[in-house]
């Protein structure tokens, strides 16, 4: 009789490398997440939403090392008056961070919060768990179970300045699991900025609970760190008349998977998710968005633009699900790529699933090259080929950048995109 | 100024010869006009001179002040002083007209080793020139040629020409689609630029433009060649009698 050979189980191999706190308010939620992770297992190539993106490097027990990119540019948002929270390789850096006190807001560290009364106790992991159906998101369950750090932000009224989370990558072998929870109370408003490459490998979850009449603005930049890998999830729940806006710019990074799962649960709410990405060379970027309309007269918009050159790959998987009863839904989705050469590719999977009859939903996806007529027109006026290409590229990305509500932040992103584009290696 | 000798051009992807030996000399300070039937190769000539892709020069030369144009990139030709007012100006969504103009002016200055124009100086100059062409501030703010009427696009071409102050200006049917008043504006814009050091090549179907912009020489192009050249009276002849007689005469 042949001996039974134990097949290696990638989920258990990964779990074996991780540590969960044995006490504290979050233990029950973490245990629950671990059970859920074991039930689904880590993502596999055959999973419906992992067809275009290989999960291998995101699920292997030890992260691939990533060289630290020496950036000589001024840091993004440097001249914005903000409250800074700094993580280095996934660990909070108190010296580099500001004092975490700001009127209208309380900020606690996930790791240090031991009070049983903490508001986060009954919330941590709940939006993530809710976002596991109808599509499982095992990397997020893993995150809830094993997150080693993060911040819990409770917004009770509108603070005077944005909160800015800065992620520094210092070690070539860092493997970070960060989990943030943001709770915006009724009538309050928060602008959250995030920038930096974080770690050699980052698994990040941000749960955002936006109450009735509250607003949440999010501007995120995933920087020019060529070898870093990241899998991030946003889980947002929107109350009545609330506003949720999230914009991400991604420039390079060998592997990025950004999932954004939004549920509109109160009437008259708005959710806008946008992304601008510039991929150059060995670059794989995947935006997977799932917007669920479960209330009346809500509006959602997904605007994703990707510029790809030198063999880069861009993926967009976007879904609008309109539940029965979510009448007067206005759903819009556009994903477009600008392919600057024939080696680059864009893979898109736009989906609509609608169970209400009085809705207006549209989606579109295009892939195109640079407009040669426009390029020649610019060159005929003396603009160099590179500069003309950059101008046309920026104008292509503009629709996504326009989704940022604050003009000063838009200008920062545009300025940064221009300088990134200008730094071509050829 | 502009010297074209025996220029033969075919389509790059097709075995179709379009220019079949064009010879043309435009002297500094002079205005030359080209007329000719549809499809005779006038726009092709202007595109090949300014460096548009898709064409292959099979024979001949084209020089600007003695420098070979055909070897240069389009932007180098522009910096060398060549300007083409397009028959069909291109719409560019997302790129503001002002940004475009300023980028172009400064790119050319940089290429020539000159200092860039400051933002305030640029604004002053562009406003004055736009006013002359009755282009309002709102149009300057819009993306390049987006939502411009046919006539507005043509005026925008002349505005670009006025800002760039090229040495050799090629105008491809800048008069078509213009109402009578706009034609006068455009002609005034062109005449304001006429000078000792500058040459003009004006492609047109109509005598009317040439009433305003008095040409020194008129050429007739047909089937990829210049078949006849003469004084301004040649344009009148075409206006009254069409091309049949001229074609028959040289056949
Ligand atoms: N890219 C192209 N592909 C196919 N045919 C072309 C192309 N460019 C020019 N041609 C052909 O070459 C000939 C000359 O065209 P061109 O546009 O130069 O004529 P034109 O004299 O400017 O005419 P019009 O007075 O109508 O503007 C035409 O038969 C045209 O169809
Ligand atoms: Mg023509």
Automatic annotation (TrEMBL), chain A:
Record's protein name: Iron-regulated ABC transporter permease protein SufD
Domain SUF system FeS cluster assembly SufBD N-terminal as annotated: residue spans: 22-157
Origin: domain of life: Bacteria
Gene Ontology BP terms: iron-sulfur cluster assembly
Pfam short name (any one): SUFBD_core
Family stated for the protein in its record: Belongs to the iron-sulfur cluster assembly SufBD family.
SUF system FeS cluster assembly SufBD core domain mapped to chain residues: 174-396
Highest classification ranks of the organism: Bacteria, Pseudomonadati, Pseudomonadota, Alphaproteobacteria, Rhodobacterales
Organism: Sulfitobacter brevis
Automatic annotation (TrEMBL), chain B:
InterPro entries: AAA+_ATPase (IPR003593), ABC_transporter-like_ATP-bd (IPR003439), ABC_transporter-like_CS (IPR017871), FeS-cluster_ATPase_SufC (IPR010230), P-loop_NTPase (IPR027417)
The keyword Cell inner membrane is annotated on this UniProt entry: no
GO molecular function: ATP binding; ATP hydrolysis activity
Keyword Transcription: no
Xref: Gene3D superfamilies: P-loop containing nucleotide triphosphate hydrolases
Domain ABC transporter span(s) in chain numbering: 2-248
Protein keywords: ATP-binding, Nucleotide-binding
Record CDD domains: ABC_FeS_Assembly (cd03217)
PROSITE patterns reported in the protein's UniProt record: ABC_TRANSPORTER_1, ABC_TRANSPORTER_2
SUPFAM superfamilies the UniProt entry points to: P-loop containing nucleoside triphosphate hydrolases
A UniProt-annotated Pfam family: ABC_tran
Xref: NCBIfam families: sufC (TIGR01978)
Family membership: Belongs to the ABC transporter superfamily. Ycf16 family.
Listed name of the protein: Fe-S cluster assembly ATP-binding protein
């Amino acid at each position: 009789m042949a001996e039974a050979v134990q097949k290696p189980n990638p989920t258990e191999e990964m779990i074996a490398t991780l540590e969960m706190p044995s006490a504290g308010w979050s233990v029950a939620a973490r245990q629950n997440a671990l059970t859920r992770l074991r039930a689904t297992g880590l993502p596999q190539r055959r999973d419906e939403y992992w067809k275009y993106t290989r999960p291998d490097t995101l699920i292997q027990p030890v992260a691939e090392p990533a060289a630290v990119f020496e950036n000589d540019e001024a840091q993004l948002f440097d001249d914005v008056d903000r409250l800074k929270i700094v993580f280095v390789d996934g660990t909070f850096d108190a010296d580099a961070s500001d004092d975490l006190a700001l009127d209208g807001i309380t900020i606690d560290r996930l790791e240090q919060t031991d009070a049983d009364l903490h508001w986060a106790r009954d919330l941590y992991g709940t939006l993530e768990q809710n976002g596991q159906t109808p599509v499982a998101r095992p990397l997020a369950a893993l995150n809830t179970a094993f997150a080693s750090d993060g911040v819990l932000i409770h917004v009770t009224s509108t603070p005077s300045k944005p909160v800015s989370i800065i992620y520094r990558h210092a070690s070539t072998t860092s493997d970070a699991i960060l989990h943030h929870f943001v709770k915006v109370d009724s009538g309050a408003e928060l602008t959250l900025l995030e920038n930096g490459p974080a770690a050699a490998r980052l698994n990040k979850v941000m749960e955002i609970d936006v109450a009735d009449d509250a607003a949440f603005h999010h501007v995120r930049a995933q920087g020019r760190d060529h070898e870093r890998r990241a899998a991030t999830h946003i889980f947002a729940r929107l109350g009545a008349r609330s506003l949720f806006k999230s914009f991400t710019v991604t420039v390079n990074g060998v592997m990025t998977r950004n999932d954004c799962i939004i549920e509109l649960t109160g009437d008259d709410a708005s959710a806008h998710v946008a992304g601008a990405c510039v991929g150059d060379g060995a670059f794989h970027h995947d935006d997977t968005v799932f917007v669920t309309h479960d209330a009346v007269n809500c509006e959602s918009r997904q605007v994703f633009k990707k510029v790809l050159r030198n063999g880069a790959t861009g993926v967009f998987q976007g879904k609008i699900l309109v539940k029965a009863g979510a009448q007067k839904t206005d759903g819009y989705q556009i994903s477009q790529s600008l392919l600057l050469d024939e080696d680059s590719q864009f893979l898109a999977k736009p989906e609509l699933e609608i169970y209400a009859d009085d809705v207006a939903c549209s989606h579109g996806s295009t892939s195109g090259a640079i407009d040669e007529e426009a390029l020649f027109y610019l060159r005929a006026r003396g603009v160099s080929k590179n500069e003309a290409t950059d101008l046309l590229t920026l104008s292509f990305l503009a629709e996504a950048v326009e989704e940022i509500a604050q003009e000063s932040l838009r200008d920062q992103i545009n300025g940064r995109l221009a300088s990134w584009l200008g730094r071509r290696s050829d | 100024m502009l010297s074209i000798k025996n220029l033969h051009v075919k389509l790059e992807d097709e075995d179709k010869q379009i220019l079949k030996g064009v010879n043309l000399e435009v002297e500094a300070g002079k205005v030359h006009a080209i007329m000719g039937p549809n499809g005779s190769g006038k726009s092709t000539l202007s595109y090949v001179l300014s460096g548009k892709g898709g064409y292959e020069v099979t024979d001949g030369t084209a020089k600007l002040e003695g420098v070979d144009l055909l070897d240069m990139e389009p932007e180098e030709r522009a910096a060398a002083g060549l300007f083409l007012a397009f028959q069909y100006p291109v719409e560019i969504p997302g790129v503001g007209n002002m940004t475009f103009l300023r980028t172009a002016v400064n790119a050319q200055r940089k290429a020539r080793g000159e200092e860039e124009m400051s933002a305030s100086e640029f604004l002053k100059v562009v406003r004055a020139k736009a006013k002359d062409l009755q282009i309002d501030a709102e149009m300057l703010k819009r993306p390049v040629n987006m939502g411009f009427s046919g006539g507005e696009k043509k005026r925008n071409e002349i505005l670009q020409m006025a800002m760039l102050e090229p040495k050799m200006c090629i105008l491809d049917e800048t008069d078509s689609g213009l109402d009578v008043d706009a034609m006068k504006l455009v002609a005034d814009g062109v005449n304001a630029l006429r000078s000792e050091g500058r040459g003009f090549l004006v492609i047109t179907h109509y005598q009317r433009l040439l009433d305003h912009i008095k040409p020194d020489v008129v050429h007739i192009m047909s089937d990829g060649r210049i078949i006849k050249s003469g004084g301004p009276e040649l344009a009148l002849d075409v206006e009254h009698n069409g091309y049949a007689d001229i074609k028959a005469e040289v056949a």
